[in-house]
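Hi V.,

You were right to ask for the full record rather than a summary. Here it is.
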Amino acid sequence: MRVITPVLVLLACTSQPPKVAADSTMTADSWPRCYTLSTGEWSPPPGQKVDVTHAPPPTIRLDTSRVEGAIDRVRHRLTPAISALGVSGPIAPSWVRIAPDSLELLWSSGYEGVFVWLHERADSVSGRARAFTDYGAEACAPVAGKRIACASESPGR
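Predicted structure:
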């Protein structure tokens, strides 16, 4: 029983959500985080045309609130929604950290959407977006961005 107690205390201490910085300065550990994003030209696979793409919004906010309905892992709130995909669909816009310096963002209606994989370097992010549909159409585009101070409200609201 003595071994279990320190393990439970350690588990409780390490499973807490990140703390929000008390002031408005941007630090590496402050949340929420906001970024401006720029999406490059969409490229379909050879022999396929680009018919549906939903570019990520130009300004995004990563929050630490958990979203409901995540299928494979704990996902967090991402705003704004992409209006063409619906704002109250079955899959909420969300993000997840997939490595210490990498993020996965998702906007989806359940039938179509866009994944964005970003690599963080200091205050910059870069990566790829992949638009997809349930009938197999897809396209990819480069994405780059910069971290910015978050406004008091989520972008797009």
